[in-house]
Amino acid sequence: MVYLDHAATTPMRQAAIDAWVEHAAAVNPGGQYSSGRAAGAVLAQAREDIAELLGADPVEVIFTGSGTEADNIAVRGLYRARREAAGTNRVVASTIEHSAVLETVKSLAQTEGAEVAWMEPDRGGHLRDLSALDTPAAVATMMWANNETGAVQPVREAAERAAAAGTPLHIDAVQAVGKEDVHFHDSGATTLAASAHKFGGPRGSGILLARRSPVPAPVLLGGGQERGLRPGTVDVAAAAATAAALREALAEREAENARLAKLRDEFIERIVAAVPNTLVTTPEPRLPGHAHLMFPGAEAESMLMLLDSLGIEASAGSACSAGVHRLSHVLEAMGVATEDGMGALRLTLGRTTTAADVDKVVAELPAVIERARLAGSL
Ligand code: PLP
Predict the structure, then answer these.
(1) Are 204 and 340 contained in the same domain?
(2) Which of 180, 76, 193, 190 is closest to 143 using CA atoms?
(3) Can you give the residue ranges of the Aminotransferase class V domain (predicted)?
(4) Are residues 66 and 156 in the same domain?
């Protein structure tokens, strides 16, 4: 099997599995007795480790149930906390956000009276016009790197401009943590979301970094855990596994980025040479493992099915909803033509990817694309 969907999720690291198993029996870390205190100590250590690794203070680390949850808590919570004090219902967001942010922003507009100023990407998927950030808003939100194209966004400039306007900025760094040099305090963000399963931790474990002020208004109500931002008994084993995965991912980051970027660049070059009319979607800066390509005229569903039958697992660039493929909102925002975007293929390399994997795909892809183009022309 050749697994090339590391941006969707990447296999758990052994260090994370070991930490998870070691603490699987941990009790409620809030318990006022010795087993509770022992669980609390493991949680505190995970919090400290993550804070140190991501340039935050331990109190700023909030454990959540996913990256999606971290995004929701931050964007909706900051809007609710700031709307009145800021004297504006304006929200600034980009059109290429992951649905965890996009749907939250749309819901703020539909149910809480927000007026959204949208930032548009250029043809390569980068947000270059950040002028919407210069007008004060209740909250602004922007991703560090795009999950589909891998395009790395100018988040530091965005944070400076948002700060100059007095606007809190949420950064969705779910794709960036483990690959980019993410330092919370240096980033200038007010809140930042990460997700363990993107860097070799368990699925269902997210991180929200949240400064002491301004603090998001609680979106979930309950027992007050995690500064009241994410109430509910914390999963100690998941927190320990997340910290273990992050430590290892960051220790390997530079060497692994160099290995992946080289492998990915050769991969793209060889595909372009072997498959006629291949379009490379995103120029630098982009994440090292992302190869986003478009094969105009090819039918996404056929590409994925044919690849799967050959033991190659990848993702389409189009969105599949109820069995119908349509252009993804990211490619649409970039102004990609429907015919090109419907033939988009996202191949994302990761820790387990080898040169032999790349060889196999390069050998099989020309025939796959030829057949998918035939299917597209029927
Ligand atoms: N944000 C981005 C950019 C993502 O790529 C993803 C996951 O695909 C998420 C948010 C959601 O993370 P999770 O799967 O942990 O809910």
Answers:
(1) no
(2) 193
(3) 2-361
(4) yes
| In a shared domain, residues 238 and 280 | no
Q: Is the pTM of this model over 0.90?
A: yes
94 and 232 assigned to the same domain: yes
Test site for ligand 1: of 6, 9, 174, most ligand atoms within 8 A of the Cβ: 174
Residues 180, 181, 182, 187: is their CA dihedral positive or negative? negative
Q: Verify that 342 and 206 share a domain, yes or no.
A: no
Ligand 1 atom 6: residue of nearest CA: 174
Structurally, how many domains does the chain consist of?
A: 2
Q: Single out the catalytic residue among 320, 332, 366, 371.
A: 320
Alpha carbon of 371 to ligand 1 centroid (Å): 32
Confidence tier at 376 by pLDDT (50, 70, 90): confident
Q: Are 263 and 242 found together in one domain?
A: no
Per-residue pLDDT of 47-105, as tens digits, reads 999 999 999 999 999 999 999 999 999 999 999 999 999 999 999 999 999 999 999 99
Report DSSP state, residue 153: P
Residue 121: give the domain boundaries.
14-248
Mutate to test the pocket of ligand 1, among 98, 127, 192 (most ligand atoms within 8 A of CB): 98
Which tokens hold the place of 93?
């967001």
In degrees and rounded to multiples of 5, residue 288 shows phi and psi of: -70, -25
CA atoms of 268 and 4, how far apart (whole Å): 13
Catalytic, 320? Answer: yes
Q: How far apart are the CA of 304 and the centre of ligand 1, in A?
A: 21
Q: What are phi and psi of 193, to 5 degrees?
A: -110, 140
The tokens describing 106, both together, are 């749309």
